[in-house]
């Protein structure tokens, strides 16, 4: 159940969306489109979008640029998180993180289990922070992106959500 404190201003976050896929181009990026649209509907700004091949170094190059940009608060990655030797997202992202948000992957797999059963254990959904930037790695399916957005991210990126949320840190002054 969502608890929001509506007497406070909502933080408008600048978010970048990275789709990792060997097959999708801009016209087929329905998961990236969904995330960008959902961000906008929630009052956030999708300030960057990109599509990367499932290659550790290509993914890291894009993410490193976004992590270094102080105007990007959140990065949503979709794709490349499944259980396969061909999937590179988690291997690319993990070394860049300053802190892992362990509960995100656990919560996502719990919700996913209710939807797809034991196949949920093959998701390496991950979240963490790097240089004060929140990074969330989601599976690439539209259903998985919607599950994560509607049940976790929408509330946690709302600075009015109580008892706590990830967005509130952007309402406080930044100290290096």
Automatic annotation (TrEMBL):
**Database matches in SMART domains:** MoCF_biosynth
Pathway given in the UniProt record: Cofactor biosynthesis; molybdopterin biosynthesis
Please give the Pfam families that the UniProt record associates with this protein: MoCF_biosynth
The record's InterPro entries line, in alphabetical order, gives: MoaB (IPR012245), MoaB/Mog-like_dom_sf (IPR036425), MoaB/Mog_dom (IPR001453), MoaB_proteobac (IPR013484)
CDD domains on file: MogA_MoaB
Cite the PANTHER family for this sequence: MOLYBDENUM COFACTOR BIOSYNTHESIS PROTEIN B
The protein's name is Molybdenum cofactor biosynthesis protein B
**Which organism is the protein's source?**
Alcaligenes ammonioxydans
Gene that produces this protein: moaB
């Amino acid at each position: 159940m969502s608890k929001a404190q509506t007497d406070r201003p909502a933080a408008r976050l600048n978010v970048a969306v990275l789709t990792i896929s060997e097959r999708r181009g801009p016209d087929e990026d329905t998961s990236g489109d969904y995330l960008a649209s959902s961000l906008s509907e929630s009052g956030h700004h999708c300030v960057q979008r990109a599509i990367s091949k499932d290659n550790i170094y290509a993914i890291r190059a894009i993410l490193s640029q976004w992590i270094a940009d102080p105007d990007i608060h959140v990065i949503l990655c979709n794709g490349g998180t499944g259980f396969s030797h061909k999937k590179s997202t988690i291997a690319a992202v993990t070394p860049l993180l300053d802190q892992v948000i362990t509960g995100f992957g656990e919560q996502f797999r719990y919700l996913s289990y209710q939807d797809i059963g034991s196949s949920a254990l093959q998701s390496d959904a991950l979240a963490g922070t790097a240089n004060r930037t929140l990074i969330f790695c989601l599976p690439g399916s539209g259903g998985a992106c919607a599950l994560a957005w509607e049940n976790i991210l929408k509330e946690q990126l709302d600075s009015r959500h109580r008892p706590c949320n990830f967005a509130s840190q952007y309402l406080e002054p930044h100290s290096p």
